[in-house]
């Protein structure tokens, strides 16, 4: 689901939190992957902490939604 609001995480590269989330949903699975793909934190580096936090939050969101799919609440063994 795409969020209507966004914030810039990396001003040097013009990268938003939504772009970081999209990169993860499209296959990036670590901060390093996101950094390589989007160039976040590749200039002054001031955005590194926030970028890592967005990556961490998004990865845990993805993991919990995958867990929900693997074990649906209404699953009944026949
Ligand atoms: S704000 Fe991200 S590298 Fe400068």
Automatic annotation (TrEMBL):
<dbReference type="GO" id="GO:0051537">
    <property type="term" value="F:2 iron, 2 sulfur cluster binding"/>
</dbReference>
<feature type="domain" description="BFD-like [2Fe-2S]-binding">
    <location>
        <begin position="8"/>
        <end position="54"/>
    </location>
</feature>
<keyword id="KW-0411">Iron-sulfur</keyword>
<keyword id="KW-0479">Metal-binding</keyword>
<keyword id="KW-0249">Electron transport</keyword>
<keyword id="KW-0001">2Fe-2S</keyword>
<dbReference type="GO" id="GO:0046872">
    <property type="term" value="F:metal ion binding"/>
</dbReference>
<dbReference type="InterPro" id="IPR007419">
    <property type="entry name" value="BFD-like_2Fe2S-bd_dom"/>
</dbReference>
<dbReference type="InterPro" id="IPR052371">
    <property type="entry name" value="BFD-associated_ferredoxin"/>
</dbReference>
<keyword id="KW-0813">Transport</keyword>
<dbReference type="InterPro" id="IPR041854">
    <property type="entry name" value="BFD-like_2Fe2S-bd_dom_sf"/>
</dbReference>
<dbReference type="Pfam" id="PF04324">
    <property type="entry name" value="Fer2_BFD"/>
</dbReference>
<protein>
    <recommendedName>
        <fullName>Bacterioferritin-associated ferredoxin</fullName>
    </recommendedName>
</protein>
<comment type="similarity">
    <text>Belongs to the Bfd family.</text>
</comment>
<keyword id="KW-0408">Iron</keyword>
């Amino acid at each position: 689901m795409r969020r209507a609001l966004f914030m810039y995480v990396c001003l040097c590269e013009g990268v938003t939190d939504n772009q970081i989330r999209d990169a993860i949903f499209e296959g990036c699975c670590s901060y390093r992957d996101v950094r390589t793909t989007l160039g976040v934190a590749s200039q002054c580096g001031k955005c590194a902490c926030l970028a890592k936090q967005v990556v961490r939050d998004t990865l845990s969101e993805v993991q919990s939604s995958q867990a929900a799919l693997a074990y649906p609440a209404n699953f009944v063994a026949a």
